[in-house]
Predict the structure.
Amino acid sequence: MTEVTDLDADFFRNWLTTAAAAVDREADRLTELDSAIGDADHGTNMKRGFAAVTDVLEKEPPGTPGAVLVAAGRQLISTVGGASGPLYGTLLRRTGKSLGEAPAVTRQELAAALTAGVAAVAQLGGAQVGDKTMLDALVPAAEGLGSSFAAAREAAERGALATVPLQARKGRASYLGERSIGHQDPGATSSALLIAALAEVAAA
Ligand code: ADP
Ligand code: MG
């Protein structure tokens, strides 16, 4: 399969609007997962946040990849009340800042920037891989992106599935202790959706 090599501002806008559509389509499932081990708002949180992201990117389209991600991250932080808003907002903002002001970037540059974004999420939330959070999908995804977009998607999906047998050690689900075992983490699931959208846009 051919892969887009020049990732410009249009590519990033396309990624985030494709992600918003996926979040919209899967919102009920995300909320259902959050009702098992959280407070049943992850789907609505993500839907509200990404609708606001789509809006801002349409109204004032930023001119560089970095600026697109920073604007989107800022929007998530200001519109999503749950833990996931600041965490995803930080992910996009830090990734965007790492890309700097380049008009276009390569997949490898994005992989390095995403790795920095994921590290910022770990720092903000104090979680690591195995704690049953979005990081279980994001850490392997950033690593996979070093090889290909498809590898990133597969790694994120595998990471999300791998949260099922884990006991949550961070976030709301951790209050359940052992009762969090046996359920897929909502945030890892939404992260896999975002990475799948990236791979989809890259393959188009
Ligand atoms: P809230 O937990 O405030 O209701 P959401 O339901 O929108 O927020 O998001 C829950 C998701 O956020 C979890 O499934 C988990 O993946 C992620 N999450 C929660 N706390 C942390 C953390 N400290 N570090 C990383 N991810 C976290
Ligand atoms: Mg919740």
